[in-house]
């Protein structure tokens, strides 16, 4: 029998070279808010607004990672992680968002990166995970064009110091949230609520991505990879009724094509411009912006948690907006006539239905829509009501089931041709979950915030085994 004639092995594993990682973000874990020259970001300000964050929690101390990064890297090494996705704090690196770099702020990331490399863990850095220097917000924030130019300057400062050792850079994390939760519904910093500002913020974030990409390319070695992470929505119409299908088209426009078309095709979708015409005339888009925004990137990061089910308005069946985002106001500009409904399925502690098919749908759609663009799952995970039992163990079978289901979906998408190169679990550690404060635990490592003690949950052991074998257990 020739080798060629042997039956091909049943594909139970992930491809060789698949990157196994975990993710965090600066404001959610670092703490040390006033140390070594760091100035406040919009989240320092927003978390002090009464009622903005549950329990009045702030990121002042968070998981104290700034001081405990060595132990945290050791923990990552114990789990066998191949890569670590973290974010750089803009106000630590460039206090106030203008002027020269703060060497003490860069020193922290320098130490962190060296520690990761010493443990064989690849650093994957995000430049902007929502912590705009407060001074830039006071000067107008993301609705103002100049903020995009400030971002490019910051990108250059970060890359010139760290670019020799960080092979993959992400410009922005989830600009949808920065624009629409930050300036639309106001449940995220800076807490502003004007849909026209939200759309201007959206455009300037994309411009920042384009200008930042150019700044990174100018500074980084040729082999470095530049990426963007989006929280694209797996949008599903409730039925095939034309009204429901049109609601799905509109939400697909505002969640997905409003990013993918400018970044990958250098244009805004005509239907989105028409749908939002009553909100803004889009005059903030200048000649040349779309060429800047559509500079080639090396991969696309996808964050996925739960699908988005939409339907046409039904005056007889009023339903609260259940799009997974809290707040009285809608983050979606021009969403009159659209109902957001929950998907079927068990809910996590965030109230988000568990539905791994949504991840498969997204990855295979991107396989078709962006042929040849490498994909990374840069966030996926779940919050549950975890507690440490009297023996000190943290049993989190629901999280294991969630991860198993979603990793199976990733594997299925890969088998069906989606070019997915890696998976970063959200999150390594329990952390400051934005407007929910410390009340929602996403970590595979439990953090007791009073003592800062770290305890790997059962899911951490489970994930370590997946990473080790490259396979999902039965
Ligand atoms: C994403 C954020 C991340 C975390 C998870 C739960 O939207 O990027 O910081 O809060 O949700």
Can you tell me about this structure?
Strand 10 (375-379), helix 14 and strand 11 form a beta-alpha-beta unit. The chain has 474 residues and is of the alpha/beta class. It has an eight-stranded parallel beta barrel. Strands 6-8-9 form a three-stranded mixed sheet, covered by helices on one side. It contains 15 helices and 13 strands. The protein binds beta-D-fucopyranose. The site of beta-D-fucopyranose has 12 residues, from loops.
Strand order of the largest sheet: 1-2-3-4-5-7-10-11
Structural class: alpha/beta
Average per-residue pLDDT, rounded, comes to 96
SSE order in H/E notation?
EHHHEHHEHHEHHEEHHHEEEHEHEEEH
Number of strands: 13
Uncertain residue segments: 1-10
Number of helical segments? 15
What small molecules accompany the polymer chains?
beta-D-fucopyranose
Tell me, briefly, the overall form: globular
Estimate what percentage of residues fall within beta strands. 5-15%
End-to-end CA span: 31 Å
**How much helix is in the residues?**
25-40%
Radius of gyration over alpha carbons?
Answer: 21 Å
Largest sheet composition: 8 strands, parallel, barrel
Could you list some keywords that capture this structure?
474 residues; alpha/beta; eight-stranded parallel β-barrel; three-stranded mixed beta sheet; binds beta-D-fucopyranose; beta-glucosidase activity; glycosidase; EC 3.2.1.21; carbohydrate metabolism
